[in-house]
Each structure stands twice: as structure tokens, then as C-alpha cells.
Amino acid sequence: TLILNVGTLKGVQVGDTIEISRAGRQILDPQTKKVLRTILDKVGTAKNTEADDVSATATVNGTAAVNVGDQVKRVP
User: Fold this and answer.
1) Of 13, 40, 41, 69, most Cβ neighbours within 10 A?
2) pTM of this structure
3) CB-neighbour burial class of residue 69 (10 A; exposed 0-12, middle 13-18, buried 19+)
4) Using CA atoms, how far apart are residues 76 and 45, in angstroms rounded to an integer?
5) Residue 2 CB neighbours (<10 A)
6) Using alpha carbons only, how large is the chain's radius of gyration in Å?
7) Cβ partners under 8 Å of residue 47, min gap 6
8) Measured between alpha carbons, how far is 37 from 15 in angstroms, rounded to an integer?
């Protein structure tokens, strides 16, 4: 079970499929050393089973190890 810190006020709906990603390698500007982009690694998917105004509950598909700080986005 996965608890999300977004809910119906942000458009989350029961039945939504979400993709779980984790920040991976960072691409740095060679001169300024500023981060230009962070490559996201796909961890797995989950399906929303409950949602209220500010949070949602999802069931992870498969055996993916989900960590605090991973990012989620809705997939069609």
C-alpha cells in the first residue's frame, strides 16, 4: 500500500493508474556545475484505490520497492 500526499483537490481519482519514478543521474553544466536535468528512473506502477481531498491510497503493481521521496504521475 502506498499513501500519496495529493488527493482529489489536485485531480486524483479512484481507479487512476500512476507511474512511480525515482531521481537518478544528474546532468550538470560543465562550466557552471548547475544541474541542467535529472534523469528519472521508472520504479513501477500503482492503482489508486481511495482518495480524499488531500491524500490518496494506491496499491503497487508487482514487487517494486517504493521509497519516500519517489515521484508519481498519472498515466493514461
Assistant:
1) 40
2) 0.79
3) exposed
4) 12
5) 19
6) 15
7) 15, 16, 17, 18, 58, 59, 61
8) 31
Report residue 74 as a C-alpha cell. Answer: 498519472
* Residue linked to cell 495529493: 6
Show Cβ contacts of residue 4 under 8 Å, excluding neighbours closer than 6 positions.
Answer: 12, 18, 48, 55, 56, 57, 58, 72
Per residue in 2-22, pLDDT (tens digit) is: 999 999 999 999 999 999 999
Bridge-based pairing state of the strands 17-28 and 56-61: unpaired
Q: How is residue 42 written as a grid cell?
A: 521508472
